[in-house]
Amino acid sequence: MKKKTLLISLLCAVVAGGGVLFWSGVPQKAFGQQNQAQAATTCARPVPTAKIQPAPDANLREFPATVQAARRVDLSFSVSGVLIELHGKAGSVVTKGEVIARLDPRDYQNALDSAQARYDEARQNLMRTRTLRSQSVTTESELDSAEATYETAEAELRTRRKALEDTVMVAPFNGVVARRYVENHEHIQENTEVLSLQSIDNIEVSFQVPERLVAQWGNVALDTVQVRFEADADTWREAKVREVSAEADAVTRTYEVVAGVDAPEKLKMLSGMTAVARLLLPASSGKDVAVLAPMTAVFGGSDGESYVWVIDDNQAPPVKTRVELGGMRDEGVEVLSGLEPGQRVAVAGVHSLSEEMVVRPMRAGSEGLE
């Protein structure tokens, strides 16, 4: 019995020793690398991405634009009074010379009548004094006084007549009433804005051009400008640049461009309507070519600049990259600098990413955490 027990103990010892020798012979580094790879794959957050593509027709640049009237004026009375007529309603079309507002003229008519009476008296007195002076009946100083009184009365008469005329407001040009600031029967003070009038014969569009484009191309970039209205999306119209701001916007680093364009005959264009401005640039000649990025990939930083998250093809932290945006297109937004074709950018959850995370591109057709 003792021999049997001893034999079993010896056999267990041999098995245990063989196991120790086997495990000690396997490289521990291999197991560590496998565990690390599994942990990295498990911890890397999948992120929906899109690959950056070159912009087709890279010599074209499109920018969102806003319609504005070529002539804009806020009309007001140069005299005060009670408003008794106000014909111009917002959106109504008026013609040049048409009466659109009128003040109560009675006080100004009375003042004009009084001025007329004083003028008539001063004129008669001057004529009489001149006759007497020619007969040496009166003095030269009395004649001078009569002439001064007459001139004062004449000036007052012109002033009162002008004040009466100013109680009537007429349209200075053909246009449309954009806004009314007062209502009928209000007492308004002089120089109080009554309504805003905008021309309808010629319109302008305003859009922003990035400073990088202006720096690279200069005035050549604005040689050929075309405009397309959202209400008539199939037609591009030639436009002519009228104004270019001399200083870039402090936040967006863009220059405002105003271009004139003929109003469409069959459309009623009003200020604030949307349009698209297109610049036709010369052949590239070494200039950087724009790329397209999904609009969902772009987010604003606290510094007012635009950014995207660049995602590596393997698991790695995302890279927050500043980009300079160009115009909008149906396929996405133009990126003038900061990205290159072939790079991947995050297109969802951009506000929840950080550079401390480990991420990877989401596999095609996968959803959620895969």
TrEMBL record:
| Taxonomic superkingdom | Bacteria
User: Which keywords does UniProt give here?
Assistant: Coiled coil
Q: Tell me which Pfam families the record gives.
A: Beta-barrel_RND_2, BSH_CzcB, RND-MFP_C
- InterPro entries linked: Beta-barrel_RND_2 (IPR058792), BSH_CzcB-like (IPR058647), MdtA-like_C (IPR058627), RND_pump_MFP (IPR006143)
Is Coiled coil there in the keyword field? yes
Record flagged with keyword Coiled coil:
yes
Residues annotated as domain CzcB-like barrel-sandwich hybrid: 77-196
Domain named Multidrug resistance protein MdtA-like C-terminal permuted SH3: residues: 290-350
Q: Where is the CusB-like beta-barrel domain?
A: 206-279
Q: Name one GO cellular component term.
A: efflux pump complex
Q: Which GO terms describe its molecular function?
A: efflux transmembrane transporter activity
> Can you tell me which residues the record assigns to a coiled coil?
112-163
* Family per record: Belongs to the membrane fusion protein (MFP) (TC 8.A.1) family.
* NCBIfam families for the chain: RND_mfp
- This chain belongs to the protein called Efflux RND transporter periplasmic adaptor subunit
Q: Which organism is it from?
A: Oceanidesulfovibrio marinus
Q: What's the source species' lineage?
A: Bacteria, Pseudomonadati, Thermodesulfobacteriota, Desulfovibrionia, Desulfovibrionales
